[in-house]
Write a structure and sequence with these properties.
The complex is a heterodimer. Chain A contains 19 helices and 21 strands. Chain A is of the alpha/beta class. Chain A has a seven-stranded mixed beta sheet, sandwiched between helices. A six-stranded mixed beta sheet of chain A has the order 2-3-1-4-5-6, sandwiched between helices. The chains are: A alpha/beta, B alpha/beta. Chains A and B meet through strand 7, helix 7, helix 8, helix 9 and helix 10 of A and strand 2, helix 2, helix 4 and helix 9 of B. The structure holds thiamine diphosphate and iron/sulfur cluster. The site of thiamine diphosphate (TPP) has 17 residues of chain B, from helix 3 and strand 5. Thiamine diphosphate binds next to helix 3 and strand 5 of chain B.
């Protein structure tokens, strides 16, 4: 496994350069994971993109870098400490200086000059790509093929220039630095994989789950979902509406759900705060709705481009009144795809809003995913209990009871357009027919009916997953993007360490959590917020004892597997002494 | 063909005797009959307020949402099922205070829905506070010395925000009001019908008599042509919006007809499974 990084100023095409490397490596049969560091500026400011290239699945970034490509001196200053015995390729144009303390080899190439020699400074990053291929001892042909295909539409001249850029970058390294080429990737593992982000996965899952309408308002880091669907929906007859705010977004989704369509909105913490009243409306009117929260640093504008998992309690309890909340928490890109599709099934089947809590890291960073894990056909659509037109005709006029009391709390619904199915869906408390009622007995019946739906959902979800030995000494517990980090940390830990993660926060999988955690002698709950929100939830559900410990991080930077290893190791040591 | 009776529910209207909202309800029902609507294919979204109760009294698919959010809900319904006739009704507080953002954007978005605002210049349900349409000096419990804010002018706002159908009716003038709502429903785009609907309990200034004295009926002015945006604005400005009738209308293509790839068949009737070819086409954009 190797880690390559490119750094420069924001707006200099760092992202697309990293993308080329990741995609080519993926295409060759490597598993890649791309991690972007960026600030809340559009242009200027340091940015870097790190790609890990491996022969097994990667779901996290790492502390170490093997090869760093620096397009300016700031990149060296900010990143050289990662380069233990690594290679630093820098553009000689800025006269790079390697700090004394660095333990890296500095290689310089006149990247800018070389780019100009083939027509444009714009080619600099492609020269760097070619040079990187050589430094990684990867064949150049797949890179040439990739740029040929990528720029095909832009005409022959552009294709030729890009090919040339890759070639000269590659050749210069081979010619001048052959002696330094020590890094070599293992043999690739051919497969059919796509490099996608969690946002892509959610958008794909939504389409697979029958969603055909997204009403949303742009917000980092959730906008990618909206943008992907804007691109894909025309292929399936769906629509994206950019609303005036999140209040409108969620209410439009509720309107569509009332009419029988599968609709969603995607937002981040600030948007969730604005949607809370309407989520309650969806609960009480029993209208399906899917809401994705891509969490970022809060509260308020907080740290919009930074990683955090601090909306969990708001998702569960942020609304007023007693409402039913279903909160799904995918712990990987693949699970993001599955949960997005499943959210629409659960929302419709149980006629209730379903929230998906993901986070910035899981949503934005791209990684290799098996195409076989992204099958629309693997996510069959399940519909809600409905009254067909025949049923309603047989029932006669004014007899349909939209909110009839049932054993599982779900009342078969009618859809607008059906004769004899007319009813009133109102946020005011109502009786079985839908008519407004403040009768105390009715109130209790209707509240209990709605809340009882959680039990049915509980039956359908395996809300807490575990991977690891049968008799773990330590279990690392996480959520969202942290799960992949914990998985990698576990492979570096000496003892019997397992990883467990939540797939559902509501309905809370109490018994499953208890049974999974029972054999462990120590439990470390790793979460990216300051309040220990997952720990709080576990405590509320009676899951707390002296075996539990928290590892919290709220600096906006994702956990590194190494940090988790460092934090867990002393725990294991003390345990072994006993 | 549906009759007035078909659009009634078995509930008795809850409003104070004499409330203007009775007239709005009656006119809406008449308009629905006039356009040959079918209760089963009619959806009505109502806001929060005395006015918002209107959905309880019309036999149709009714959605009663949170305060101020009627228009987005209607958009969702229309995009989910474009075969439905979608009407929206709510108060001046609902539409022009808490819901003002949606009002502006609905005008420019132009989804084919009909918006009936029941404007009584006061907050009824919360028992008498100023509203955005209350006049300066209007005394209420929250403005005991009289309102010191200028009233908004919803009609001028609508015309200038790109509205494609803007009208005003008076709940007492039934034939005109019913005909305006009918035209609004028939208009292929967003239609606003602001209806003067007096609150007999909390507004002792803008009474039926006051309106009858001050309102000009555009139908009585054969020279007025509702096809010129700037003339419409001038007329509204000169009359301080004290006019009834069709103020402005232009040919329009509704939003839903402009969405790329959006189909004539309503979303709710589409097969949601994605065939292999389409799925691979989507995935190929990620390669
Ligand atoms: C979010 C929210 N804020 C405040 C209220 C309280 N409230 C209910 S109706 C209303 C105003 C009603 O005035 P208007 O829309 O003019 O309707 P009317 O009652 O006059 O028909 C208010 C402020 C509420 N229901 N929800
Ligand atoms: S308070 Fe006013 S608006 Fe409300 S029902 Fe009575 S008269 Fe009508």
């Amino acid at each position: 496994m190797l880690a390559w990084k490119i750094g420069g100023d924001q707006g200099e095409g760092i992202d697309s350069t990293g993308d080329v490397l990741a995609r080519v490596a993926n295409h060759m049969g490597y598993y890649v994971y791309g991690y972007k560091h960026f600030s809340s500026r559009i242009k200027g400011g340091h940015t870097n993109y790190k790609v890990r290239i491996a022969t097994t699945r990667v779901e996290a970034t790492t502390r170490h870098t093997d090869i760093l490509v620096a397009l300016n001196q700031e990149t060296i200053h900010r990143n050289f400490h990662e380069l233990e015995n690594g290679l630093l390729l820098a553009d000689s144009a800025f006269k790079p200086v390697l700090p004394e303390s660095a333990s890296a080899h500095l290689l310089t190439l006149p990247l800018t000059e070389m780019a100009k020699s083939i027509g444009s400074v714009m080619m600099r990053n492609m020269v760097a790509v070619g040079a990187s291929a050589a430094l990684l001892q990867m064949p150049v042909a797949p890179f040439i093929d990739y740029v040929t295909a990528k720029f095909e539409k832009k005409g022959e001249a552009i294709v030729a220039a890009n090919r040339k850029a890759v070639e000269i970058g590659y050749q210069r390294i081979v010619d001048e630095y052959a002696a330094l080429l020590t890094f070599k990737l293992e043999e690739p593992v051919p497969g059919d994989r796509l490099v996608i982000s969690g946002s892509d996965a959610i958008a794909l899952g939504a389409i697979a789950g029958g969603c055909r309408l997204l009403c949303g308002y742009p917000i980092t880091p959730a906008t990618e979902i909206m943008e992907s669907l804007a691109k894909w929906f025309p292929l399936v007859g769906g629509a994206v509406v950019q609303m005036e705010d999140e209040l409108g977004s969620i209410t439009a989704v509720i309107g569509a759900g009332f009419a029988g369509a599968r609709a969603m909105t995607s937002t981040s913490g600030p948007g969730i705060s604005l949607m809370q009243e309407a989520i309650g409306l969806a609960s009480v009117t029993e209208i399906p709705a899917v809401i994705v929260d891509t969490q970022r640093g809060g509260p308020s504008t907080g740290m919009p481009t930074k990683q955090e998992q601090s909306d969990l309690l708001a998702l569960l309890n942020g609304g007023h009144g007693d409402t039913l909340r279903v909160v799904l928490t995918p712990g990987s890109v693949e699970e993001s795809f599955e949960d997005a599709a499943e959210a629409f099934n659960l929302a419709e089947q149980f006629q209730t809003p379903v929230l998906i809590a993901t986070d910035l890291s899981l949503s934005l960073w791209q990684q290799s995913v098996e195409r076989s894990r992204l099958k629309a056909s693997a996510q069959p659509i399940r519909h809600s209990a409905t009254f067909s037109q025949e049923d309603l005709l047989a029932l006669g006029e004014s007899a349909f009871q939209r909110y009839r009391l049932t054993d599982n709390g779900v009342s078969p619904r009618s859809l607008p357009g059906e004769i004899n199915g007319q009813y009133l869906a109102t946020g005011v408390e109502h009786g079985p027919s839908g008519k407004v009622s403040e009768d105390p007995v009715n109130r209790i019946q209707m509240m209990d009916k709605r809340l009882s739906k959680l039990e049915g959902i509980h039956q359908m979800r395996d809300g807490f997953k575990y991977e690891g030995p049968m008799e773990p000494v330590l279990i690392l517990v996480g959520i969202g993007s942290t799960v992949g980090i914990l998985r990698e940390a576990a492979t570096h830990l000496p003892a019997k360490v397992g990883v467990a993660w939540f797939r559902t926060l509501s309905p809370f999988p109490t018994e499953r959590v208890q049974s999974v955690l029972a054999p462990a002698r120590h439990i470390l709950v790793v979460e990216q917020n300051a309040l220990g929100q997952i720990r709080q939830l576990m405590t509320i559900h009676g899951i707390a004892d002296s075996r539990f410990d928290s590892y919290l991080k709220y600096d906006g930077v994702p956990f590194l597997p190494e940090e988790v290893v460092d934090r867990a190791t002393p725990l294991l040591n003390t345990l072994e002494v006993h | 063909m549906a009759t007035l009776q078909d659009f009634r529910t078995n509930e008795n209207a809850w409003w104070c005797p004499g409330c203007g909202d009775f007239g709005v309800l009656a006119a809406m029902q008449k308009a629905l009959v006039a356009v040959h609507a079918n209760p089963a294919t009619t959806a009505i979204v109502a806001g929060i307020g005395c006015s918002g109760k209107i959905g309880n009294y019309i036999n149709s698919y009714n959605l009663h949402v949170t305060h101020g959010r009627t228009l987005p809900a209607a958009l969702g319904i229309k995009l989910a099922n474009r075969d439905l006739m979608v009407l929206v009704a709510g108060g001046d507080g609902d539409g022009y205070a808490i819901g003002m953002g949606h009002f502006m954007h609905s005008l420019r978005r132009n989804v084919n829905i009909t918006y009936v605002v029941m404007d009584n210049h006061v907050y009824g349900l919360t028992k008498g506070q100023t509203s955005p349409t209350s006049e300066e000096g209007f005394k209420t419990k929250t403005t005991p010395q009289g309102s010191i804010e200028r009233p908004i002018h919803p009609l001028m706002l609508a015309v200038s925000a790109g509205g494609t159908f803007v009208a005003q009716g008076f709940s007492s003038w039934q034939p005109q009001l019913a005909s305006l709502i009918q035209k609004g429903i028939e208009h292929p785009g967003f239609s606003l019908i602001n209806v003067i609907s007096p609150c007999v309990t909390y507004n002792k200034v803008n009474t039926y008599d006051w309106y009858k004295k001050n309102l000009q009926n555009l139908d009585d002015d054969p020279t007025y042509q509702p096809t010129d945006r700037s003339r419409a604005l001038t007329r509204l400005h000169e009359s301080d919006e004290m006019v009834t009738g069709l103020i402005y209308q232009e040919a329009s293509t509704p939003y839903e007809a402009l969405i790329p790839g959006f189909r004539e068949t309503p979303l709710v009737h589409q097969d949601l499974t994605v065939d292999e070819t389409t799925w691979n086409k989507i995935l190929s954009t990620l390669e």
